[in-house]
Amino acid sequence: MFASExxxxxxxxxxxxxxxxxxxxxxxxxxxxxxxxxxxxTVEERSGLPVEWWEERLGSDANEASVVYGAFDEAGVLVGxxxxxxxxxxxxxxxxxxxxxxxxxxxxxxxxxRRLVLALLAHARATERLRLxxxxxxxxxxxxxxxxxxxxxxxxxxxxxxxxxxxxxxAKVHMWxxxxxxxx
Length: 184
Prior knowledge:
The protein is of the alpha+beta class. The chain has helices at 21-34, 43-47, 51-57, 112-126, 142-150, and strands spanning 13-15, 66-72, 78-86, 95-103, 132-138, 154-165, 168-178. Strands 1-2-3-4-5-7-6 form a seven-stranded mixed sheet, sandwiched between helices. A hairpin with an 8-residue loop joins β3 (78-86) and β4 (95-103).
């Protein structure tokens, strides 16, 4: 379904590049459609975007505003993705935000989510100016929240009425991870 073009991707987590855009797009559109309450973005907002938008999102310039990592199963199929966006404003450049975490239903409970989060945290730690990574998770998504907590994130607040999904207003749990507090 989401085949990788690189045979070395079997059971790997790596930064996605523009050549991965078609597989990444398919994975994310499926995630937006299947789990609408988990994302602020909707399938309708992203499905009409050209593949060039997705390629640009996966740009490989070291000065990009974000990076996206992908997880590949033993067959080299893209089964998960998550990104890290970097704050550009001078007074907030020490922060990054984890976004767009998705793992295909067929690959859940196999450790791909954990490996993605840890890869993003490693990328963040290697970025000298960063001190913390933050994220939001929809209140009630206890599986995702527990994963983030196991990776070192802590809750620091809840935003009520954060997103509107199918007529319901849902809260977002805000979490953060101090990169200096993580084990080496």
